[in-house]
Amino acid sequence: MKLIVGLGNPGKEYAKTRHNVGFWCVEAWLKTLSGVREKGKWDAQIVETNVRTEPVILMRPQTFMNRSGLSVARAVREKGLDPERDLLVIYDDMDLPAGALRLREKGSSGGHNGIKSIIQELGTQNFARIRVGIGRPEPGILVIDHVLHAFSRDDRIRVEAAVDRAVEAAQAFCVESFPLVMNRFNSASNVK
């Protein structure tokens, strides 16, 4: 079984913000499915589906970003998952230009509070990630204001394309080795 987690903040006021790109990826995947409904479990919205024959749980934690690890850890423990093999987290990254993708097998939080929470709750940094670039704030703009506001029109177009690529990469993660997935999607993720 695979657990695919998109990070974001619950609530309509955050739905279109840069910090919710992880939610956008789960929502884009859900649009490709028929006859499934989200349900509440582990303080998250989840859907159980399959990629080929692999069972998959799609998750959007509803705990706010800085407590995302609580939902993820509960699911990992209850389902007996190995974070290093079975978990993929998709989230926004200011250190990448808007619309860029970067896949990694492990690493630090890089200052991202959602990843920091997951690392703390799981007790490991060894889990797969897809980072979706949202770009840095303009000079004089606070980080919090940057991540909690909507994209410009041009950046949104680039990020929506990246969301589609992130969903393809996440689906591939479910049935292929992650090094192969990283090789394919990292090399193809340059922003045009």
Automatic annotation (TrEMBL):
It is found in: Cytoplasm. GO terms for cellular component: cytoplasm. Its EC number is 3.1.1.29. Keywords: Cytoplasm, Hydrolase, RNA-binding, tRNA-binding. One of its GO terms (biological process) is rescue of stalled ribosome. Its main location: cytoplasm. The active site is at H19 (proton acceptor). It comes from the Bacteria. InterPro entries: Pept_tRNA_hydro, Pept_tRNA_hydro_CS, Pept_tRNA_hydro_sf. TRNA binds at Y14, F64, N66, N113. The record marks D92 as: Stabilizes the basic form of H active site to accept a proton. The record marks N9 as: Discriminates between blocked and unblocked aminoacyl-tRNA. Monomer. NCBIfam families: pth. This is Peptidyl-tRNA hydrolase. The gene is pth.
